[in-house]
């Protein structure tokens, strides 16, 4: 794995501890995830002495309401993070690569929502319910995983702890929010236009979005046929679950849903496993809520996943294509903007507090 971010930052053990009331910044505050980061900090009563909102020059002069006050949005530059203890970055990979490493060098701890550092061996990739211990190894940057990887890891980890996973086949039904606020707006506008019988020319995504779905918008590797999202999910799940050899096949699809991702998972275990045993493990797992009513045909749905922090898990059944009794199929859904992004980042930040 090429490492274009050499490990020249102080390890966690040698860094100043985070104060009880840290200074916090949200980078990308005006974006789809940024707005949710601010809301999570507010709703969870995150202790802080000062909150700085940062975005691009496009947002100069804007204010955002936080805890009853209008805070100015400032333009991110080289000195914006001076004196900031924790910065939550969600401004895309280019901004993270440009600003996060230097800020970490100057003492800020970065929780980065972009893919810039996720596969760097010196950067822990953390889902707190799964691998909180990895936080101790940070060098000033902690990566928040890809949204599908987080939402899949929350139910897969406790199952893996009980019965090692040999193979995962995943198919995703991914919401607009993963492509940012502009893609959410495109879904709304394209749907309205379609209902009015008008033509809508796609601006953000490559294909018509209303009443349609399409293969994920990440670039496709022309040789393998795998797209960039599928590669991220495979690599990141292996890193989060600490299973570097795990066999994972993924198909990522963008669907016309605003902000919650659904994933169909077929999981093969080392030893036979019953549906009841899997359900019991999942029912006791942190961050999981079972939604599995066969009689009512009521299973995880993006509408019910939206606006809350759990990963919904259901449609639990034996995978009858595997007669050995070692495979289970399930459907999971999680809010891409919350557990898939902002909530997970704030949960990481909470664990940095002393
Ligand atoms: P802005 O609103 O000023 O463009 P989304 O993922 O919803 O598209 O949001 C991206 C977020 O990242 C926005 O807050 C955007 O700010 C911010 N952003 C994008 N590029 C930069 C940059 N170079 N510096 C600072 N913020 C950036």
Description:
The chain is an alpha/beta fold and 354 residues long. The chain folds into two domains: 12-144, Rossmann fold (3-Layer(aba) Sandwich); 149-175 and 213-336, Dihydrodipicolinate Reductase, domain 2, CATH 3.30.360.10. It is 28% helix and 23% strand. It is built from nine helices and 15 strands. The chain has helices at residues 32-43, 93-105, 128-131, 147-162, 181-195, 228-240, 275-283, 302-305, 338-350, and strands spanning 23-27, 50-55, 63-66, 69-75, 86-89, 109-112, 141-143, 165-173, 214-215, 247-251, 253-254, 260-269, 288-290, 311-318, 327-335. A seven-stranded mixed beta sheet has the order 3-4-2-1-5-6-7, with helices on both faces. α1 crosses α9 (338-350), α4 (147-162) runs parallel beside α6 (228-240) and α4 crosses α9. The chain is globular and about 60 Å long. The protein starts with 22 loop residues before the first strand and ends with a helix. 45% of the residues are buried. Residues 1-7 have low confidence and may be disordered. The structure holds adenosine-2'-5'-diphosphate. Residues 28-32, 34, 55-56, 58-59, 76, 91-92, 95, 180-182 line the site of adenosine-2'-5'-diphosphate (A2P). Residues 28-32, 34, 55-56, 58-59, 76, 91-92, 95, 180-182 line the site of adenosine-2'-5'-diphosphate.
Q: Topology, please?
A:
Blueprint: E1 23-27, H1 32-43, E2 50-55, E3 63-66, E4 69-75, E5 86-89, H2 93-105, E6 109-112, H3 128-131, E7 141-143, H4 147-162, E8 165-173, H5 181-195, E9 214-215, H6 228-240, E10 247-251, E11 253-254, E12 260-269, H7 275-283, E13 288-290, H8 302-305, E14 311-318, E15 327-335, H9 338-350
Helix pairs in contact: 1-9, 4-6, 4-9
The chain binds adenosine-2'-5'-diphosphate.
Residues 28-32, 34, 55-56, 58-59, 76, 91-92, 95, 180-182 line the site of adenosine-2'-5'-diphosphate (A2P).
């Amino acid at each position: 794995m090429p490492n274009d971010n050499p490990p020249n930052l102080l390890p966690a053990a040698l860094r100043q501890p985070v104060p009880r009331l840290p200074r916090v910044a949200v980078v990308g505050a005006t974006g789809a995830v940024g707005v949710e980061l601010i809301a999570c900090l507010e709703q969870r009563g995150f202790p802080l002495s000062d909150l700085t909102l940062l975005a691009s020059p496009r947002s100069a002069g804007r204010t955002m309401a936080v805890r009853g006050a209008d805070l100015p949005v400032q333009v991110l530059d080289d000195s914006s993070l001076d004196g900031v203890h924790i910065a939550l970055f969600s401004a895309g990979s280019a901004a993270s690569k440009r600003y996060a490493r230097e800020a970490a060098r100057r003492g800020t701890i970065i929780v980065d929502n972009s893919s810039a550092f996720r596969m760097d061996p010196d950067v822990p990739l953390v889902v707190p319910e799964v691998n909180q211990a990895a936080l101790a190894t940070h060098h000033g940057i902690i990566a928040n995983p890809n949204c599908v990887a987080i939402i899949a890891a929350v139910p897969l980890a406790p199952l893996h702890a009980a019965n090692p996973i040999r193979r995962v086949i995943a198919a995703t039904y991914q919401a607009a929010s993963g492509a940012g606020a502009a893609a959410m707006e495109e879904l709304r506008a394209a749907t309205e236009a379609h209902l009015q019988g008008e033509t809508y020319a796609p601006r953000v995504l490559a294909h018509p979005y209303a009443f349609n779905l399409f293969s994920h918008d990440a670039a496709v590797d022309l040789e393998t046929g795998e797209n960039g999202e599928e590669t991220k999910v495979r690599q990141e799940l292996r890193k989060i679950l600490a299973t570097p050899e795990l066999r994972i096949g993924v198909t990522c699809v963008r669907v016309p849903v605003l902000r919650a991702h659904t994933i169909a998972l077929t999981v093969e275990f080392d030893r036979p496993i019953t549906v009841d045993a899997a359900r019991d493990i999942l029912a006791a797992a942190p961050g999981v809520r079972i939604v599995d009513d066969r009689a009512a045909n009521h299973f995880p749905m993006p509408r019910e996943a939206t606006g809350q922090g759990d990963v919904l898990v259901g449609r639990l059944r034996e995978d009858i294509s595997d007669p050995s009794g070692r495979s289970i199929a399930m459907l999971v859904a999680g809010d891409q903007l919350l557990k898939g992004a902002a909530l997970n980042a704030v949960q990481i930040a909470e664990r940095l507090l002393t």
